Amino acid sequence: MNCESCGAPITRMGRFGRYFCDHCDRKAVATPLKDSADGLVLTGTTTDIPCLTCEDTQLELGSLDTYPVEGCRRCQGILLKTSAFAKLIRKRRASYNGADHSGEFDPALDGPRDYHSRLTCPTCCLSMDSFFYAGPGRVAIDSCCRCETVWLDCGEVSSIIEAPGLR
Fold it and tell me: Global pTM?
């Protein structure tokens, strides 16, 4: 995503989820990817972190609501801080007004990754833990407790938000 005013790359996100141009300091409007199930916004500014699942693409700076993330344009996987993940889920579940969906779930495909296929944390380079999310929605997430990050595959945020249960 480039600044509409000067054309420079957008790289900075403010406290309220608004993007700013570092070159001319103007606000930029960010819209979610057209086919994003989770409302992922990507800026086009790549990081030095390879996608945890695609491996041959770089993650881009982006956001989910007002929370900074790094995401993959190809698979729409999302890397974010554990604290941001908790706040995002709490906020989105509280404001969700749609119908509850439990979704299709195959433990062999959608369950935790086995020991040999675990993802590698891009910060500390150790294996991430893969486990069933303890809250609503039947999803398995990957996290690194050492670096306090979470990796979410495309659609996992929506599965948690739309799942039946206490809001």
Answer: 0.82
Chain-centre distance for alpha carbon 21? 22
- Of residues 105 and 50, which shows the higher confidence score? 50
pLDDT band (50, 70, 90) for residue 26: confident
Q: Which two tokens stand for residue 63?
A: 């956001």
According to the 3-state scheme, what is the secondary structure of the chain?
Answer: CECCCCCCEEEEECCCCCEEECCCCCEECCCCCCCCCCCCEEEEEEEEEECCCCCCCEEEEEEECCEEEEECCCCCCEEEEHHHHHHHHHHHHHHCCCCCCCCCCCHHHHCCCCHHHCCECCCCCCECEEEECCCCCCCEEEEECCCCEEEECCCHHHHHHHCCCCC
How far apart are alpha carbons 136 and 164 in whole angstroms?
Answer: 7
Angle (CA) 53-47-28 rounded to 5° is: 115
Contacts of 120 (CB under 8 A, 6+ apart): 52, 126, 127, 128
Distance from C-alpha of 142 to C-alpha of 93, rounded to nearest angstrom: 20
